[in-house]
């Protein structure tokens, strides 16, 4: 049954088409038939993709583009579920105790899950069948992310435990499988959300203002794949301007050789090299075609394991982009950020990655891609992924569309109720969880060419040992810049000690006017925050922004004024980057380019894009 749209919403959509950008799918959302008794809940705001989601198409895309194999099985869809006080138990619930169904991988708090509440402890159950042609292979079970403490059983045998809400994890479940029939997968998750010592970013049990609804449990794709006993587990790719350094990490590959082949996209081979699994293999690329936002060229990579007789025991597909990121001095001797050896101004939005229907989980892959496409249409070349880690496909789209990315580490819980000045150090357990998560994040995302920098801390939230943490990240990944403390000038931040590669100023509405003081480039890591309320597109609760405007025309005019001021700072101060708050409205924050439901581009797209391109041109050489 098709839902009817209220007249006000139809009028708003027509206006949005004229003023900004609305995806074509927004016009006629198709409700999914549900024959199981499960149904989604009604979100406070729907997106153009909300009613396209159902048990038969819950994020069906291959979830790991930089390490792909042709055979796999998606376990997204309906799972049995139980939560609440009854779930606080050590023993596995009986089948009869699973009273609900949940649509995985949407978090229980989301409308798309069909549950729409937070449970401190959750039990999930799924029955699956291993395809017959997988016989004789090892079977790996993968979780994109589970928030926060997960224990996994297959056929009542424990196969994995994992803590931390943002990192992927896997288990070889072969020995737990029984015959060729049905297999039982059970997952127990505990997540107290912001009442814990784990990094949580902006998730809160009591959201409001700059903090948002939390996401618990399974919130990224769950899937299976068959592999040989000798197989590649991971491929680390470090590019420069003429070659790839590829490290294939493998299981059961003693005595074998690793072969790396670089090809043009969908085309012929251009280079290959051979080496040992677990060691870096350099592959020089003739006539290199570099990756940049203006030309996001990606080479195809194939990695094979070969035994002593030359037989291929495993093969995986990947991709990479040739590029470097570093610093150079401009004509005035000021340090500037340089992509591929050339001064390149970083201009883009703060991007929170929240959704009104899926919260931490975008409703569809098209929706995930949509936000990044809008950033490109806005004339921008950069994104700061703000204290959240996204699924691998988000970085794939950033790589493919051509957007440079700063990746924040999700912060520990922070309180603003204390005395003025830097916040006290987190407790030792929280520090340990933070460092574990930070190391896992860098390791997981290090091969994405779009990522050009890591941001360990934001405005002092949960900050500790700043110099040591910055040095630790740099040692783990020397190929990228480290922005040790974004917003070092404000809030709960520690005094600037010169840690990291960048000095980062936060000023609202701004722009800020930092001055070069050492060999670090200067950036406006946050500025803007111009707000506009559009009826029919607002989350329940009091809306907020750093400066409110009354109309789309006024918002466009003020954006132009702030951009003109930013242009002067770029020229006068040698600014290397500026990050506008923000891509979309998020819950009660109404300072996005787009409304939270992604249905309306609030300022005039063409005018804003012209200003943005002018700023990038002024700050680049």
Explain what you see.
The chain has seven helices and 38 strands. It has 621 residues and is of the alpha/beta class. α4 links the parallel β29 and β30. α6 (552-573) packs parallel to α7. Among the domains are: 7-227, Jelly Rolls; 241-320, Sandwich (Immunoglobulin-like), CATH 2.60.40.10. The longest helix has 22 residues, at 552-573. It has an eight-stranded parallel β-sheet. It has a six-stranded antiparallel β-sheet with strand order 3-2-4-10-7-8, with no helix packed on it. The protein starts with 6 loop residues before the first helix and ends with a helix.
What is this entry, summarized?
With 621 residues, the protein is α/β, with parallel strands linked by helices. 16% of the residues lie in helices and 30% in strands.
List strands and helices in order, with pairings.
Elements: H1 7-19, E1 73-74, E2 77-83, E3 100-104, E4 121-129, E5 138-143, E6 146-147, E7 149-154, E8 157-163, E9 169-172, E10 182-190, E11 203-204, E12 212-213, E13 217-218, E14 222-227, E15 231-239, E16 243-251, E17 257-263, E18 269-275, E19 281-284, E20 291-292, E21 295-296, E22 299-306, E23 312-320, E24 325-329, E25 335-339, E26 342-343, E27 346-351, H2 365-377, E28 382-385, H3 392-401, E29 404-408, H4 428-445, E30 451-455, E31 457-458, H5 466-476, E32 481-482, E33 485-486, E34 503-506, E35 522-528, E36 530-531, E37 547-548, H6 552-573, E38 577-581, H7 605-618
Parallel strand pairs: 11-12, 27-28, 27-38, 28-29, 29-30, 30-32, 31-33, 34-35, 35-38, 36-37
Antiparallel strand pairs: 1-14, 2-3, 2-4, 4-10, 5-9, 5-14, 6-13, 7-8, 7-10, 15-16, 16-19, 17-18, 17-22, 20-21, 22-23, 24-25, 25-26
Helix pairs in contact: 2-3, 6-7
